[in-house]
């Protein structure tokens, strides 16, 4: 029973850990700074990331609830076994007490029987020793005492034999109930081991299933990251924040006196249109840094 209590506590502690981890993941997914300033495809990838992390956290909270329910079932199973065990223990306690009491009575009957045997032997020896040394009246007293000791011996002998017989019956009953109790406790232990084994097996299978489901969620994140385009995000930012296609005109020097003599405004040369740069370079790693996969691959770092 003590082992089952420890298993219940273990499942309860497991549930607390799962719930705490799930809540932490949900809180992480809801933090505003994560991806708040990103745009376009990277923002969609980060939104997918937060949503899937939230789903993973919800899965851990559901697992915590399942573990609590299983701990409750395990506690009910333990209480049921405890109740049945108590009934058998009470029966065995009563039989054991009765056996001990009868054993004490039998030992007392044996002690009295042995004392009566010694009394009879002493009476016989007294008769033989004083056969020719005492008067007729004294001999009658000796023979009377011998007869009394023989009668007392016969009574104690019957009582002793009856006690032994009764003790044997009680011992046989005790032994029979003891065997039944041992068989019952063995059956209970088999049920307990089987129950806990199956419960743990089911939950390990559930953990495996959760890992598969979590990997599907992570795969959704990877697919979203595959759709993330650096070039598209740069173009989106430029189109969103651009102020025009021409650069501001340069500020030219204007001589005050020349301006007075020639009031016609001096036109600044038209600025040349700004051309877009070429394609972005592929990120490279310097010696000693980890190698990153390209955006078309999966997001792993190769050391």
**Percentage beta strand:** under 5%
Distance between the termini: 51 Å
Q: Return the string of H and E elements.
A: HHHHHEE
- Biggest sheet, in brief? 2 strands, antiparallel
- Unreliable stretches, pLDDT < 50, 5 or more residues? 290-303
Rounded Rg: 50 Å
Q: State the strand order across the main sheet.
A: 1-2
**Helix proportion of residues, in percent?**
over 70%
DSSP strand count: 2
- State mean pLDDT (0 to 100 scale): 81
Helix count, DSSP H or I runs of 4 or more residues: 5
Computed structural class:
mainly alpha
Task: Tell me the overall shape.
Answer: rod-shaped
Key descriptive features of the protein:
303 residues, rod-shaped, 5 helices, mainly alpha
């Amino acid at each position: 029973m003590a082992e089952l209590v420890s298993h219940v506590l273990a499942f309860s502690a497991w549930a607390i850990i799962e719930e705490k981890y799930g809540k932490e993941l949900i809180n992480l997914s809801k933090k505003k700074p994560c991806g708040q300033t990103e745009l376009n495809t990277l923002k969609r990838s980060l939104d997918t990331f937060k949503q899937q992390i939230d789903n993973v956290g919800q899965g851990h909270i559901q697992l915590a609830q399942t573990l609590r329910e299983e701990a409750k079932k395990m506690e009910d199973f333990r209480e049921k076994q405890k109740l049945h065990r108590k009934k058998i223990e009470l029966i065995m306690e009563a039989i054991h007490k009765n056996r001990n009491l009868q054993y004490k009575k039998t030992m007392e009957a044996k002690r009295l029987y042995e004392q009566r045997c010694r009394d009879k032997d002493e009476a016989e020896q007294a008769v033989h020793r004083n056969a020719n040394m005492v008067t007729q009246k004294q001999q009658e007293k000796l023979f009377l005492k011998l007869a009394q000791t023989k009668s007392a011996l016969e009574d104690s002998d019957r009582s002793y034999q009856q006690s032994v017989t009764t003790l044997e019956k009680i011992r046989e009953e005790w032994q029979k109930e003891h065997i039944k109790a041992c068989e019952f406790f063995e059956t209970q232990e088999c049920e307990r081991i089987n129950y806990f084994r199956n419960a743990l097996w089911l939950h390990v299978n559930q953990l495996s299933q959760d890992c598969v489901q979590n990997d599907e969620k992570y795969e959704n994140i990877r697919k979203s990251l595959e759709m993330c385009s650096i070039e598209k995000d740069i173009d989106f930012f430029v189109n969103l924040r651009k102020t025009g296609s021409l650069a501001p005109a340069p500020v030219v020097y204007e001589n005050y006196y020349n301006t007075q003599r020639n009031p016609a405004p001096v036109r600044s040369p038209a600025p040349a249109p700004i051309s877009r740069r070429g394609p972005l370079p592929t990120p490279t790693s310097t010696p000693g840094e980890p190698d990153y996969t390209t955006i078309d691959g999966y997001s792993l770092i190769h050391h």
